[in-house]
């Protein structure tokens, strides 16, 4: 096929996008970090693109360096460039240096199409001279053997965490302190601030990084799921995962999340008091929210198929895959 997708990191959004479009996805990785990583992966990328001669190249941003390299090589190799831009690639939150913002906007202007997850980000891409395409994440499919596990608390809540700077973990810990909530925190705890980890309430359990079947079993077994972010207009992956298993969820009340998941989630302003109130809303409205999640899951799946079909035709190749439903 003349369409090739390329990333330098494993990320569920791009993996699910390529699976849904039946696109080949190449993930280039190395154990090295810093400048050596960029040199090695840059050289491997150049070699791959010279060999494959794809007519359409889809790259994930981040990595900003990969996206920049893809722009620079386009004139030589003549492919059509599609950039799957995550929030950090449009509105940098973690890396806010001026050069990062300038380079990010340059990539947006130079790409043929920039895929974003919501209309708020699309408006920014268009305002900066790019051509946006809005495509929220597809609903993921849990493993077939995804079971239900026995959890310990009277009200069991899973916090989906990567321990990145945009996650208000401290406020969540305080919201569940001295309550009957049993909070299961996913992700690698070594990435947490050690002071914050040491101050975690006794009703917090750190699961560590879980294999996929165990992770999905935990999400399916929970009474509620929390996935919060301080980023503006950010649709978190955990929201789609919660819909996939029909578990009620608490999300940050940014415009994009409230617009897409209205009716199937409770929302919070990320403060300790409001997170606690949000958990109570989930506890009281759990049954209704499970039903709403099933409806929303079907609605978003059909919307994704229709939008993905428009995207593949926009790619401008005769070899266009047919989008597949994800849930």
Number of domains: 2
Given the structure, what is the number of helices? 13
Quaternary form: single chain
Low-pLDDT parts are none
The N- to C-terminal Cα distance equals 25 Å
Instruction: Provide the CATH topology of the largest domain.
Output: Rossmann fold
Helix/strand class: alpha/beta
Shape: globular
CATH superfamily of the largest domain: Glycogen Phosphorylase B
Overall strand count: 12
Order of SSEs: EHEHEHEHHEHEEHEHEHEHEHEHH
Which band does the percent of strand residues land in? 15-25%
Question: What helical percentage do the residues reach?
Answer: 40-55%
Sheet with the most strands? 6 strands, parallel
Verbal overview:
- With 327 residues, the chain is an alpha/beta fold.
- It has 13 helices and twelve strands.
- It has helices at residues 12-21, 34-52, 64-77, 87-90, 98-110, 119-127, 169-176, 194-198, 212-221, 237-245, 255-261, 272-284, 286-314, and strands spanning 3-7, 24-27, 56-61, 80-85, 113-116, 132-134, 155-159, 181-186, 204-208, 224-227, 249-252, 266-268.
- The chain has a six-stranded parallel sheet with strand order 2-1-3-4-5-6, with helices on both faces. Strands 9-8-7-10-11-12 form a six-stranded parallel sheet, with helices on both faces.
- The longest helix is centred in the C-terminal third of the chain and has 29 residues, at 286-314.
For the structure shown, list the relevant keywords.
alpha/beta, 2 domains, six-stranded parallel β-sheet, Rossmann fold, 46% helix, 327 residues
Write the layout of secondary structure elements.
Elements: E1 3-7, H1 12-21, E2 24-27, H2 34-52, E3 56-61, H3 64-77, E4 80-85, H4 87-90, H5 98-110, E5 113-116, H6 119-127, E6 132-134, E7 155-159, H7 169-176, E8 181-186, H8 194-198, E9 204-208, H9 212-221, E10 224-227, H10 237-245, E11 249-252, H11 255-261, E12 266-268, H12 272-284, H13 286-314
Parallel strand pairs: 1-2, 1-3, 3-4, 4-5, 5-6, 7-8, 7-10, 8-9, 10-11, 11-12
Helix pairs in contact: 2-3, 3-5, 7-12, 10-13
